[in-house]
Automatic annotation (TrEMBL), chain A:
Function: Probably part of an ABC transporter complex. Probably responsible for the translocation of the substrate across the membrane.
Pfam families for this protein: BPD_transp_1
Family: Belongs to the binding-protein-dependent transport system permease family.
GO process terms (BP): alkanesulfonate transmembrane transport
Species whose genome carries this gene: Azospirillum brasilense
Coiled-coil residue spans: none
GO-annotated cellular components: plasma membrane
Transmembrane segments: 33-49, 97-117, 124-146, 152-171, 204-228, 248-269
The protein's name: NitT/TauT family transport system permease protein
Main location: membrane
Keyword set, alphabetical order: Cell membrane, Membrane, Transmembrane, Transmembrane helix, Transport
Xref: InterPro entries: MetI-like, MetI-like_sf
UniProtKB/TrEMBL annotation, chain B:
Gene3D superfamilies the UniProt entry points to: P-loop containing nucleotide triphosphate hydrolases
Domain of life: Bacteria
Record's keyword terms, sorted: ATP-binding, Nucleotide-binding, Transport
Residue ranges occupied by any ABC transporter domain in the UniProt entry: 3-232
Family note: Belongs to the ABC transporter superfamily.
Listed name of the protein: NitT/TauT family transport system ATP-binding protein
An annotated Gene Ontology molecular function: ATP binding
Pfam families: ABC_tran
Amino acid sequence: MPDTPLTGTSLPLQDRSPSQPVRFRGGGFTVKGHRWAALLAFVVLIAVWESTNRFGLVSELFLPPPSAVASALAAMAQDGSLWQHLKASLMRIGVGWVMGTVAGMAVGFAMGIGSVARAVGVPLVSAFFPIPKIALLPLFILWFGIGEPSKFATIGFGVFFPTVIATYSAIDSVPRNLIRMAQSFGLPWASILRKIVLPGALPGILAGFRITASIALILVVAAEMIGAEYGIGAFVLTAGNLMLTDQLLAGVLVLSLLGLTIGTVLSILERRLLKWR
Amino acid sequence: MRLIIKDLCHRYDDLVVLDGIDLTVQEGEVLAVIGPSGCGKSTLLGIAGGIVAPTSGSIAVAGAVPDGCLNPITFIFQDFALLPWRSVEDNLSLVLEHHPLSAAERRERIESGLRRMGLWDFRKALPKQLSGGMRQRVGIARALAVRPAMLLLDEPLSALDAQTRELLMEDFLSLWQRERTTALYVTHNLDEALRLADRVVVLSRRPGRLREIVTIEEPRDQRLEPSAQAHLAEVRDRLWHLIRAEAQLADREIADA
């Protein structure tokens, strides 16, 4: 077939002006992964911190170098005191968090699915949630004594309200069309709750766990600083009183690692349970 | 199975959405409902399916249900309503789990539904791994798994692209050819109604009142034939004439609101 030029009157005449490449304007505003940047930042920070001490810019008493903190931590691990303190803190966090979470989820579920429970619960939660929970520790000591129950209660109380809010908000965010679908197929109420509401609310509930785990960590330190012989909080306070700043920072490092570990465990849990997202 | 709607009215607080609807969907019939946005089409379907309680009026069913029917009135949803955390086969299993079926029968129903929709190879996939058309096929397979006597379809093709819509319309046609399942089909799309329905109910703008019922004489399997086109075009013009002014007024009302 011969290659005939198009000559329709509706088509523009051939333009012979010089062509210009179209400039790319679509870059930026996207987050790229830089795997080594975080590690490098840590290395630089530690190097700068260490050198400030080595060059005598900062007194070791006020800010001991990372090497001294590491030595103090190694010594604590060797003499067993680290494990003793860690065990006490973990036990308090574990018991307090589980108590607060179980109660919070139960109340959150009731408020999520029951209008009367919500009408009663929302004002109460709004009133109690803003109270700094550590302010209630003296009252809990009065009620439960200076031992473990008052610390469990402080942590549990601190965890309870955010769990309630996270749970009923998560239930609110379950798409109503899924519930209507289940109803239209005649699923019983308990099945709808178990097979639709609970899995649908899980992302929000797990996000709440992340917040309440941090709250539990903050409260355990505060509670241990007020009245405990063992525990990372008690250890940090004692080290501070004795001006053993290398041990103090070793305790802070343990807390940081504890927070990081809890966060990692929750991330693994989210990846396993929410792989459908 | 027949569906009989008598003097149905529905209001949300002060807003009257349906008023005085009298309608019977005959056994084996596909009845399409069209009308402007907000005229109460989906509410009508919800009431027919028992998931919206009417303000007044009555809804009744009559006639036999097929053997093995577990859910006589079954919905197919516009947004598919699949559980994103369940695989395709588990989404079908969901609607069977509360029935006293043997494991073998449950498996058979799931397999038969998925094979009929061409989804057997995707039974382990999660909904997010499927295209829109495949997700709606899962929705249809789920409906078929309970062997319904009546299907309530709420704009089942409106979230899909034009090609997928065509393919799914063919699926519906072959389904109705085989099963003769009664269906109430809500749609915005006149062409879907003309292709699939035996009769088309036109609702007025809100409050939705029954304006007219148009019967399409051509058999469903002959509606793509050239000989049917002139009559279908006439019916289409008539339907469009009936809803055009209503749709314009409804659009203005929505803009004003």
